Amino acid sequence: MAVTMKYVAIGLGFNLFWLLAVWGQYQYVGILISLLIGCWLFYHRSFPFAVIASVIGVGGDYVLFHLGVMQFPLPTNPLFAPFSSFIPLWLILLWLGFTSMVWIMRTQVLRLPLWGMIIGGSLGGALSYRIGLTLEAVIWPYSEGITFIGIGVVWVFYSIYLRWLLQVMTKRKTA
After folding, report:
1. CB-CB contact of 159 with 118 (8 Å)
2. I want to staple 175 with a disulfide (CB 3.0 to 4.6 A). Which of 49, 70, 96, 106 is the partner?
């Protein structure tokens, strides 16, 4: 029961992190960075996994951004202006938070069958971006249906990559 409560708390914590990132965007960057540092101090082995795993996610979002599949509102604070030609800093922090959570929950994640992780990852990932659209954190210039399906397909590959990386880094105990 205590283990289950731990994972529920981690899941709820990540949902709060997600909300601060997506709804708050640049408003809560300091809090997001503080939460990540706290996570990495407490779960120090999550840091290398998060950095390595996030490179693919951030890179994928960068490609989607430059292909025009996703756009982001311009930051109003000049401090964050350099990110307007990349992807938003809050989205990079969100990737780091997400992959940190995946590492922390790796035992549960690796128990899932691959097909379950692919279906859950693709639907969950696409739904996350769809909710971001509703919260006006992202803009989809193309039709919502096509963009949702496209992002879902991209998340199939993210899910497979994350599963593979979890297996490799868990076996090596290097993370």
Report:
1. yes
2. 49
Q: What is the domain count for the chain?
A: 1
Mean pLDDT over 88-109 rounds to: 94
Please state, as a whole number, how many other Cβ atoms lie within 10 Å of the Cβ of residue 20.
Answer: 20
As a whole number of angstroms, the distance between CA 13 and CA 60 comes to: 25
Q: Which domain holds residue 64?
A: 2-172
What phi, psi does 73 have (nearest 5°)?
-60, 145
The type of residue at 7 is: Y
pLDDT at 10: 87
